[in-house]
Amino acid sequence: MNFDFFSILIYLLLAVLLAFIVKAYWDTQAIKENAFRNHLLLEEQLVLENNKSKMNIEKLYLSDNLQKSVFKRLFKITKDILLLQKLIFDK
Amino acid sequence: MKHKFLSIIFVFFSLYGFSQNPLKLIDSLKLVIASKPQDSIKIKAYSDLCWYYRNISTDSAFAYGNLALKLSKSTQNKLGEAQAYNDIGIIHYGLADFNKSIRYYKKTLNIREQMLDSMGMASAYNKLGISYQRTFKLDSSIIYATEALKIYEAKNHIKYATVIKNNIANIHQDLKQYKKALSSHLEIAETCKKINDYVGLTRSYTNIGNSYLFLKDTLNSFKFYQKGIEIAQENGYQRELATIYNNLGSLFKNQEKFEQAIIAFNKAFVLRSKLKDNYGISSAAINLGVLYLSTGETSKAKDKLNLGLNISKKTAAKELEMKAYEALLLYQALKKNTDRDSIIYYQKRYNLIQDSIFNNRITKQVTEVQEKYNAAEREKEIQVQRANLAEKELKLNKKNTQLIGLGILAVFISLLGYLLFNQQKLKNRQLQREGELKDALIKIETQNRLQEQRLSISRDLHDNIGAQLTFIISSIENLQYGFKITNKKLTNKLQSISAFTKETIYELRDTIWAMNKNEITLEDLQARISNFIDKADTYSNNMAFSFNVDKSVSKALIFTSVKGMNIYRIVQEAINNAIKYSEAKSVSVNISKVNQGVKIEIKDNGKGFKPENSSFGNGLNNMKKRAQELQTNISIESHLGKGTVISLIV
Description:
Chain B: This is histidine kinase. The structure holds 2 protein chains of 2 kinds. By secondary structure, chain A is mostly helical.
């Protein structure tokens, strides 16, 4: 086959473009892999934080209930003590 | 079986045929054909009949040759077809119709080449060489003879190679290269002697005699002719003998020994008549006619010359025809009562033939030159056209290459663009998703921090409350024992406050226990319940408590802190109710495995109550509320005098 300058130029360009295509493909694959890894990491962290949040919510729920109950009880104790005080003073 | 038998008979006849006379052989072959043998045997028989008839009846020979050809073609028997063409070619050669023989030999050669039959090809080349020699196309003749020689030498067939060498030497002789021809013939004769090829030796001696005759060495020429005659007579080589006698006649004629020459030519004439060799008969008759003219026997001369003329006309042997007219002219001139018209007629015929031969040669030469010139011109034109075509093709190829390259380039650019666009899109999408996730993470982290802060404050508050409650209990106990209070009502009140405060502290501790754990296992819950039952057992003297956990229940079962706390509270409430209201002797807590999960059952053997008549108090309502939070149903079964069973499945 006989090649002139123009043909050689075209085929050289083809070779360069092919190299770029391969590089672009590899880069895309690398980006995909990195993104997948980061995404997994973030999702794991999010799940952990969500779990933590759920537990905190439960603890807060318990705490709120306890507070309500304890305040009721404290009120009752205070009332009883006041009644006791009255009883002592009556005596 | 029949075919095998016929084949054996045929082979027998074929072998037997070598020692039979031709007529007997012909009859035998006809018998074979009449027995309707296989096609291949039939073809062979037809070919053999053609061969044996060639010296008896040329018409019959042609007929059988054509039959063999037809059958071979119809049965696609290439070997038979080649053989039939060969046989027909030989008959034409025998009739001095060399152009036709060349045509048939070429057909044979074509088939043999297709069959890659090298020996058959060599035979055809040889026959073509001889036929071309007879038509004076010596260049073609030498080319074909050389081709045949190459094959025979390659195959180491000395005998056949010798025959070809002999033919080539004869061509040299026709080209008047007598010394070269003589040395070749002498060499060939030696080879023939070595291999005991007597036919070849006879022909070699004849050729040596001819070469010596052309070199004017009549003594040696006569010596070799004599040697040839001796061998031919000993072995019965009729054709070779006729040739030698003819040549010997020419020798005697050159020496002006007319009587001896007439004897020799007569012998040649008789032998060739027997062999039906038309060319030879014509040649011998004309030679005899010329000799009779020399000896003054004009009537004999006339007969022989007319015979020679007729046969030469039939066989289209122009040289002989011309020779006959020349001799007839001489005859007319020598005749006593000269017929002038005849002289003029023969003169005209002689000139005509001579002109015809001359014209033929000139026309042929002119045609050849013209053809050569035209061929050269055409070749040049073809070369130029080819060069132009090649140049155009090259340009076209270049353009095609460039177009293909540009096409691929466009595809590559598009592909690269697409890949880069895709890459960018992917990057953006990934960044967006990552951003979303990070935002969510930050939000939840912030929320968690806030919750943790709230929990921390709660813990501090609970600790503080716990300390204050402890202080209250301690103060009440100090008050009770320090001031020695005897008032029963006062003492009861103090004990009631102390018990309530202690209960509050326990509740506080239980909840803090649950809050400090991220998750509560069944084992934790079991320990907690067991601890509670122990305390209950301590405070209730008339009540027996039991706590059973089925072995099939996995201790690794996990609950959230709220769930664990709710279960604990339900059990606690049920036991408290039993202690307070059931008047039971025994209370049991059972944990077992069921299909849906784990069943927790609190059972007492107390007085029981009617659930339909009883409006549920705070305790039972709390239990139901907690069960709802656990997303399960609580079952409360109670009958008067039969105790109460409270169960739930988690």
